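Lab channel / #folding
Pinned by the channel admin:
"Please post every new chain as: sequence first, then the structure tokens as a reply. Keep commentary short and put observations after the output so the thread stays searchable."

First post following the new format, from NK:
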Amino acid sequence: MARYEHLPIYKQAMDVAVHFEKVVAGFSRYHKYTLGTELRNKSREIVSLIIRANAEYDKPPMLLVLRGQLDELFILIRLAKEVQAFKSFAAYQFTVEQVASVCRQNEGWLRSFKGPQDGPTQRGPEVGGRRLRARPPTRAD
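Reply from TO:
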């Protein structure tokens, strides 16, 4: 079994889950049992996905699933803000910053598995420190 307690992304995601447990306690009864439950469950699911991704040999597919779950969590957070479930704007702001940190770490972890050929920008050949350009196609009819 792979160790995961040392991972910064795991620590941050666990902090987010604990934060949701505390913040949801301050929601009104209606939001606590509807939106609050979803926020708590989603944050725990994210922690589980991080543990699973760390144990996988082929991590990128699981990290892509984690990216989707983080996007869903952001949607729930935004919905909670719109219905004024958070007690204060500061609670909302802190929550968004913490989840954004987990997202950045996930993207970094995902990027670490991609080679230079997988990136969005492929560099052309270089000669003498200058990059060669592709010659524009000519019509040779």
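NK: The first helix runs from residue 8 to 24.
TO: also worth noting, The beta strands are 126-127, 130-131.
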